[in-house]
Amino acid sequence: MNGKSALETRLQAALASREERWIRRRLPDPALSTSSTHPSPLADFTSNDYLSLSASSKLRTHLLQRLSTAPDILGSGGSRLLVNGRAHAQLEERLAAFFGGEEALLFNSGFDANVGFFACVPQRGDVVIYDEYIHASVHDGLRSSRVAPDSQFSFPHNSLSGLWDLLSRLKAERRGLRDGESSLFLAVESLYSMDGTFAPLTEMADMLEEVFPLKNAYLVVDEAHSTGIYGPQGRGRVALLGLEDRVLARLHTFGKALAATGAVVITSTLIRDYLLNYARSLIYTTSLSYANIIAADCSFDMLVDGTAQHLSNRLLDLSSYFTNTLQPLLTSRQIPPTLVSLPSSLSSPHHPPTPSPPHPHLPSPIIPLPSPIIPIHTPHPRPLSAYLLALGLNARPITWPTVPKGKDRVRVCLHAGNTRAEVDRLVRGVVDWAEETLRLGVGVDLGVDLKLGGGERGGGGGGGGDGVRRTGRGRVLDGVLESKL
Ligand SMILES: Cc1ncc(COP(=O)(O)O)c(C=O)c1O
Question: Which residues line ligand 1 (CB under 6 A)?
Fold first, then answer.
């Protein structure tokens, strides 16, 4: 024995294997995080604080005032089923009305909400289909659900024709779905966290109703990244498109644009009641503290009073500015798309190309919205991110397994609090890095093994490694650029 237990040996081997494959995750340096008392010298192009509400003195003052007069702020006393705080119930009532839903149910996080919903609502014999880029929490929920593995299907990202084919096949193959004796759930994200793409929600709702006229197919929309930014008063894209009555459940999280913590599911009275009885991630956990509930409530005040709308306009304006500046520069400087590229959906920013209609009755989706999430595709996300960091720009590399192999990127997240000057520096940094890389003679032959593979979506896991197996010159490139920092 070498003194190590079997467990230690195995855990260390797994971590070493990740290190070897350049995918080991590590926490970022806390010094890179900004706070009101210790503002980071770095421009933030990475957090999900899209509206920069975490730095809002208006929200901060409002929250402190509310906390100072609230009857309860500490703890919550237990699970909602044990202690149902008045503040919790009032926030649910407020949110059901705000989002135009029948009922609202709070969860401690968006992750818990997705796990809780997908683990219990779909029943034995039902089918769940999901966009291939769906968040890890939906996968985790399905893993412990009663839905058989052979009744869980993904379809290509945002592909209406792929969805149409899958729905038609399932209808042909499964009598229960045809007869309305079993149900189908379609899980999508309103705005995809790693790609900044929008699900064509209206077309999806139309398609479910057309293929399953008995109304046994249900749309479930995760609005984690769209809450606060899109729709009237930031109510999300379901509200923007007027789909409230055609969606079974919507998830709104508080930890991203709302600068709080927690989440709410907007759904029917029956589903809420069922979740209260069967969603283990709700039943067997202490509910959010009173302080958390007050914080979320104060953030919703910012949505209602128009503060968020103002910030959202600024944010989306900045997003358009970024893509409208970077894309032409990449073209005019002849940067090969194999080295750096923006997604093709951004090639004409306000009118992304529309997928071909899968069915003659269905209109093409036109989505004239800018997104604050912009992936810069490159097979070398780590060196690019490190180069930007040295310029005072914090944009993180995202790699497999957070995104599929071969789809590595630096994920740029814009914020209402970013300035145009920061965005200009970011654009210049990306282009300078690309030109320097080309000058180093690496060219477009980057020595990268681009084996395609599935990803594991989730917001937190991007920064560990660059996720591609390098050969020869690719590895050299990392060394050369990193040694310059
Ligand atoms: C699409 C999506 N859904 C759900 C979640 C989880 O939300 P929360 O951070 O509140 O747990 C995230 C966060 O990464 C997300 O990106």
Answer: 109-111, 114, 135, 137, 189, 193, 222, 224-225, 253, 255, 263, 458-459
pLDDT tens readout for residues 56-100: 999 999 999 999 999 999 999 999 999 999 999 999 999 999 999
What's the whole-model pTM score? Answer: 0.88
Query: Rounded CA gap, 15 and 23, in Å?
Result: 9
Choose which residue among 49, 111, 191 to substitute to test ligand 1 binding: the one with the highest number of ligand atoms within 8 A of its C-beta. 111
Specify the residue with its C-alpha closest to ligand 1, atom 8.
110
* Domains along the sequence of the chain with CATH: 38-56+306-344+369-439 (3.90.1150.10), 70-305 (3.40.640.10)
Residue 34 corresponds to which tokens in the numbers above?
């900004």
Q: Which atom of ligand 1 is nearest to the CA of 114?
A: 4
Q: How crowded is residue 218: how many other Cβ atoms within 10 Å of its Cβ?
A: 22
Span 171-204, pLDDT tens digits: 999 999 999 999 999 999 999 999 999 999 999 9
258: phi then psi, degrees, rounded to nearest 5: -90, -5
